[in-house]
Amino acid sequence: MRNILTPSVLVLMLAACSNAPQEAAKPAATPAPAAPAAKSEPAAPAAKSESAAAPAAQSEPAAAAAAAELPVGACGDQGAVAKEQRLANTPRWTTASEVDNFGYDVFRGDSEEGPFTKLNADPILGAGTTDETKNYAYRDDTIDPCRAYWYYVESIDTKGGREKFTPVFMASPKRRAADAAPAPAK
Description:
There is one protein chain. The protein is mostly beta strands. It contains one helix and eleven strands; from the N terminus they run E-E-E-H-E-E-E-E-E-E-E-E.
């Protein structure tokens, strides 16, 4: 493995969506599970987020129950909605340390297998070389709120080398279409 980054802990999660803008450094409320560490050292306490990433696979009854709990709303392109009012997925990740880290690119796909498209025009700047914990986030407000998406983060070292930094993870839909609502009980 290249010596791009040496994080002892990598925590990966998605922020819950709301109509309010989300900030990268917003204080967190709910603990999230830690993702696999990039090297084997004791895990530090998990970082917190508004909501942890949902499991990629659910049983059909569990998936149906989760879908029924989603709010009903408009689906499709949110281009006509003010940027600060769009629903979004916010991948967040944390490093315990970094070595020669230039930055990160965030990729999104419609399925776990891809294909994936880079979302950010410019890299999310890294911390270079540091032993300090750093928190990162990217707000993706170009989603269809009724669809699930898959993401991963790629690191870029100061020499331009690239390496997949996180595993692929899923962001669940934020709402369901009005025509997908369960029939009212009689």
